[in-house]
Specification:
The protein has 193 residues and is α/β, with parallel strands linked by helices. It contains seven helices and nine strands, in the order E-H-E-E-E-H-E-E-E-H-E-H-H-H-E-H. 40% of the residues lie in helices and 22% in strands. The protein has a single domain, classed as Rossmann fold, CATH 3.40.50.300.
């Protein structure tokens, strides 16, 4: 199983992902995706992402290992995010992985691995809270870029539109208004699954 944690930016995906993957009872292994974007203050290589350059991305692509790939034209240039098929255990029934992804990544993973192996965990929260969290997170950066916060916020409205969620079959949503309640709901559903 691959549990794909997704939602608009600043919904708490990283925090939820960390809590879920540290919960020994769930037995989830982190599936870390790759990016060409620069590492942010406080991030650790191999923890949030594998931070690589475009040459490394191209070599992985030539080897046929890229499962899904997205690129974003940011105020800093084009950033790539992608999942690499570099773990043979994923297809084993007893394996349980979790990753952070987008709706597009979720759909491509379903196509690649099969819908029975890929489970969506869609996180949502109020827009006001999301925007405040994003601005506060950006304030902590060495060179805050609020234009990028705005770009991501607006892009998320399109990327996670209600129509796209319905088309992807996202029928279960987890509200992150109270973190512990959200975590409890997700844990209960993973245990049932």
């Amino acid at each position: 199983m691959i549990y794909v944690i997704m939602g608009k930016s600043a919904t708490g995906k990283d925090t939820i992902f960390d809590i879920l993957t540290h919960n020994e009872e769930l037995g989830l292994t982190r599936l870390v995706i790759y990016t060409t974007r620069p590492i942010r203050t406080g991030e650790i290589e191999g923890h949030q992402y594998h931070f690589v350059d475009e040459a490394r991305m191209e070599s992985l692509d030539k080897a046929g290992l890229i499962v899904e790939h997205r690129q974003y034209d940011t105020v800093h240039g084009i950033w790539h995010y992608f999942t690499v098929d570099d773990n043979e255990d994923i297809r084993k029934k007893e394996s349980r992985y979790a990753m952070i992804g987008t709706l597009e990544a979720y759909e491509k993973l379903k196509d690649y691995y099969g819908g029975e192996l890929v489970v969506p965990i869609y996180i949502e929260t109020d827009d006001h809270d999301r925007l405040c969290r994003a601005i506060n997170r950006e304030k902590e950066q060495a060179s805050p870029n609020y234009a990028e916060v705005c770009r991501r916020y607006l892009a998320d409205e399109e990327d996670f539109s209600e129509d796209k969620l319905v088309c992807a079959g996202i029928d279960r949503r987890y509200r992150n208004n109270v973190l512990q309640e959200c975590i409890d709901n997700i844990c209960n559903d993973i245990k049932k699954h």
